[in-house]
Amino acid sequence: MALKEQLRSDMATAMKQGDTATRDVLRMLLAAVKQAEVDDQTTLDEAGVVNVLTKQAKQ
Question: Domain spans of the chain?
């Protein structure tokens, strides 16, 4: 399973379980990935997604 799909799946699980903290973090990460895709006008590959997640972890 690709990393973006795993993040989406984990977010759905967190929503079903009522885990708002995890849900909010995953939403933030997915938003950062989507913003990077819009900025670059391309679909990110696994390395690009990892790069975005690494940048978010540093913040």
Answer: 3-58
